[in-house]
Amino acid sequence: METELDGSELGTKEYWDSSYTREIGNYKNHGDVGEIWFDEDSQQRVIDWLVKQKIDKQARVLDLGCGNGMFLVGLANEGYEQLTGVDYSANAVELAKNIAQDNQMNITYKVADLTQPQDELGAFDVVHDKGTYDAVSLCPENPKEKRSLYLATVEKLLSSADSLFVITSCNWTEDELVHSFAEKLVKYATIPTPTFKFGGKVGNVVTSVVFKKR
């Protein structure tokens, strides 16, 4: 049986709308792109991993819960060209569009609720999630149902059996993710993340795992 996380404001659209309203103001006034939710280094680790895997620069990449879009900016700097970001906060999408435009980058951003079917988005070679599954899991209402709907959406967004779903979580361990995704996805690789030792046991602050379709 899956353990449920306690509900949090981090699992509500209202929280993120409010947060990105402030960050839009900070960006316009000070050029500050805003915070990257939990462990900025993990974003670069994923980019470095994709580059090391020699993922084609023409691969279609989708960032789920893109926030300010800096993950896709990082990929654009590596030469990737077919980049799309989605977020259920229109304010996040506005901020990401402003940053991409100011950096003269051709990145597509759209508003999308990933707990709803997203057939119009198409299919992708790489689908990335850093913290979005976590946020869905923190939803105060029906988190288990919303996670199931989210995973159904992710499965349809993967274009083929070779497509990759790369997820970084600060709330779920690798074993928990593998178990939760088992019906639809199978683990393909683990991206190493920093470890800590406590009480004689070794753990990870964050977990980054790569999945493929079953």
Automatic annotation (TrEMBL):
The keyword Cell inner membrane does not apply. It is an enzyme of class 2 (transferase). One of its GO terms (biological process) is methylation. InterPro entries: Efm4/METTL10, Methyltranfer_dom, SAM-dependent_MTases_sf. GO terms for cellular component: cytoplasm. SUPFAM superfamilies: S-adenosyl-L-methionine-dependent methyltransferases. Its main location: cytoplasm. It is found in: Cytoplasm. GO terms for molecular function: protein-lysine N-methyltransferase activity. Its EC number is 2.1.1.-. Keywords: Cytoplasm, Methyltransferase, S-adenosyl-L-methionine, Transferase. Residues 56-192 form the Methyltransferase domain. Belongs to the class I-like SAM-binding methyltransferase superfamily. EFM4 family. S-adenosyl-L-methionine-dependent protein-lysine N-methyltransferase that methylates elongation factor 1-alpha. This is Protein-lysine N-methyltransferase GF14906.
